[in-house]
Amino acid sequence: MSNLYWLSEAQMARLQPFFPKSHGKPRVDDLRVLSGIIFINRNGLRWCDAPKEYGPVKTLYNRWKRWSDNGVFARIMVGLASESAEHKTIMIDATYLKAHRTASSLRAKKGGAAVRSGEPKVA
């Protein structure tokens, strides 16, 4: 079994309204390219390390860059979030949640170890 990631037809159908219209020459397969972009981002790879099954690296990068600059990915996220809110289903993926390095120094300024351990601060 392959470790490659592929969007399903149902997922692509949900995303289709957010894609920009093709002007003139038809675009390379959106399913292949978008699946490749997701694979690269999910695995933290460099563009040059993309598996050849997703097509030319330059195509993946160019589509990602153009759609990022035009706000396509932002519209997709907002659109999917609003659909989720309509259905009252909100899911948060905290696997990429990171605390900023200054969070601990702010706590230290407000009381140091006593605050961190939950003990009352003695004056």
Care to give the gist of this entry?
This protein has 123 residues and is mainly α.
Task: Report on this structure.
With 123 residues, the chain is mostly helical. The chain has one domain. 50% of the residues lie in helices and 0% in strands. It is built from 6 helices and no strands. Helix 2 crosses helix 3. The chain is globular and about 35 Å long. The mean pLDDT is 80. InterPro entries: IS402-like_dom, Transposase_6_like. This is Transposase, IS5 family.
| Major beta-sheet overview | none
Structural class based on helices, strands and sheet pairing: mainly alpha
Helix % is 40-55%
- Distance linking N and C termini: 63 Å
Number of strands: 0
User: Uncertain runs with pLDDT below 50, 5 residues or more?
Assistant: none
- Number of domains in the coordinates? 1
- Mean pLDDT, to the nearest integer, reads 80
The H/E string reads: HHHHHH
Beta-strand content estimate: under 5%
Count of DSSP H/I helices: 6
Rg calc: 21 Å
Q: What overall geometry do the principal axes of the alpha carbons give?
A: globular
